[in-house]
Structure formats: structure tokens, C-alpha cells
Design a protein that fits this description.
Layout: H1 4-40, E1 52-61, E2 66-75, H2 80-96, E3 111-118, E4 131-137, H3 139-144, H4 149-166, E5 170-177, E6 195-196, E7 204-205
Parallel strand pairs: 2-7, 4-5
Antiparallel strand pairs: 1-2, 3-4, 5-6
Helix pairs in contact: 2-4
Length: about 210
């Protein structure tokens, strides 16, 4: 004979199973309705494409250690931070291409974010419109960057020079990796310091 407590336990488990089945059915039905609503509200027009603008990418060349300015026509967003991220992404795409003069893997995905903030200096006062660019690199980009003082320095300086060429008010650049301070890029280039864009000057121009 089945004990009374086992009967009670069986009834409770059965009730819980039925309640769970009802909840799952309700959630499934609601998710289905949301999917249908999303399909109905999908835009029928293609998204707008940003107009192409003239931009300057300052790319590094390992052969002679130079920084070469390249003029490009690129679709760029209006928001300054997003605009800077897109420009630096295009620069890193150059480095990831098979025929790159400064081979660095990763491409545009190596730039997580770029923030433009008012610049600050504890020594000489800076003009009110001077900006500090905070470039947040991804950990995978830093981990896969070729190690060496020259190659790391060229990457850092080319980023600074590209920002200066397209954002004249950017006077300082700081680097983060995955949102955190990091001693070096790949063992050599110092990422704890603030870089001055005035020190990152293209040494020539090349055709894209």
C-alpha cells in the first residue's frame, strides 16, 4: 500500500509539472507574438548610408619607419567618438591587409571605443577647445600585435597622427586595453603615458 505522504508528494509534483508546462506554453506564445510583431514593423526601406567624406589615414611603413598620409573618401558618421572609431578601424584594416607595409592582425575589430574629452594638463594650460582622445583597444588586438619597440611605436604614433589629421583639436591621446590601464602594447610601447599628437607628424604622403 502506498503511504499517504508519497501520494501527497506525487500530487504536488504533478501540480508543479502542470503549472510549469502552462508557464512554458505562455512564454512560447508570447515570444511567437513578439516575433510576428517584429516582422510586421520591419523597415521596408534600406538604411541610410552616410555620405562619403575626405579623410586622412596616416599609415606606418616598417621598411623605413615612416608615417605616410593617405587621402581616402569614406562614409563617416556625425558623432565624433564614433567617427574617430571608424577612422581608426580603417587604419587597422590597412595593417591587416595581405600587402600591408606594417603588418598587424585584427583589423577594425581592434578598436573597441574612442572617447573625446576635454584635455587637461598639470603644467601648461591648454586652450578650452583642446581635446584628449581615449582609445580603447581590444585585448585580442594587443595580444596578437607583433612585439618590438619599433613596430609597437609605429602603431601608436600612426593612431595619434590619424586622430590629429582628422580632429585638429585633439592634442593628447591615452590608450586603454579592454577598458583598463596596461603597461605596454606588446611588451615595449608605453601605454601608461599621455601621447601628444604634435609629436606624431606624417613624414610623407602616398597614394591609396
Amino acid at each position: 500500500m502506498i503511504p499517504r505522504y508519497q501520494k501527497v508528494l506525487f500530487v504536488l509534483l504533478l501540480a508543479a509539472s502542470l503549472a510549469m508546462a502552462g508557464i512554458l506554453w505562455h512564454l512560447r506564445n508570447r515570444a511567437h507574438q513578439r516575433m510576428l510583431a517584429g516582422e510586421d514593423s520591419a523597415p521596408t526601406q534600406a538604411p541610410e548610408v552616410e555620405p562619403a567624406e575626405q579623410a586622412t589615414l596616416v599609415a606606418a611603413n616598417d621598411a623605413d619607419g615612416s608615417l605616410l598620409a593617405q587621402e581616402r573618401s569614406l562614409p563617416l558618421p556625425e558623432d565624433p567618438g564614433t567617427r574617430a572609431r571608424v577612422l581608426l578601424g580603417k587604419l587597422l584594416d590597412l595593417y591587416a591587409s595581405p600587402d600591408s607595409a606594417h603588418p598587424v592582425p585584427g583589423g577594425a575589430a581592434g578598436i573597441a571605443q574612442v572617447f573625446l574629452l576635454p584635455a587637461q594638463s598639470a603644467q601648461d594650460p591648454l586652450p578650452a577647445d583642446t581635446e584628449l582622445a581615449v582609445v580603447n583597444l581590444t585585448g585580442s588586438f594587443a595580444a596578437n600585435h607583433p612585439s618590438g619597440i619599433e613596430t609597437e611605436t609605429l602603431t601608436v604614433l600612426s593612431i595619434c597622427a590619424t586622430l590629429r589629421a582628422n580632429f585638429p583639436h585633439v592634442a593628447q591621446v591615452r590608450f586603454l586595453v579592454d577598458g583598463q590601464m596596461r603597461p605596454t602594447l606588446a611588451g615595449h610601447a608605453d601605454l601608461t603615458r599621455t601621447y601628444l599628437t604634435v609629436n606624431a607628424v606624417p613624414t610623407g604622403a602616398s597614394n591609396p
